[in-house]
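Please, structure for the following, as tokens.
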Amino acid sequence: MNDAERFQHVLEELRALLIDLRMTGGQDGTRYAATMTTRLSYLAGGLAGADFRPTDQQLEVAKLLGEAVRSSVARFDALASKDLAAFNELLRSKKIGPIIGT
């Protein structure tokens, strides 16, 4: 696997944690495991439709999802600062314009 393929693979892994591009509607929710955005959406829907405080289980899920989001943000930050910089250096060495980062 070359550097470009490795970089793409890392990006796709991170994206897959957040959203599943295979989801097209219908019964896809039963075919594929829920991603982080699906879980957050489900939790938010349950909280928004309630006239009472969140249950202990909802609070625990919110805590776990918050930790997962922070972990994903940290992975993205590392990817943007380290891997993207290295990939851009590779592109520059081949006289190709860089990918613009944050």
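Residues 56-93 form the longest helix (38 residues). The chain has one domain: 3-23+31-93.
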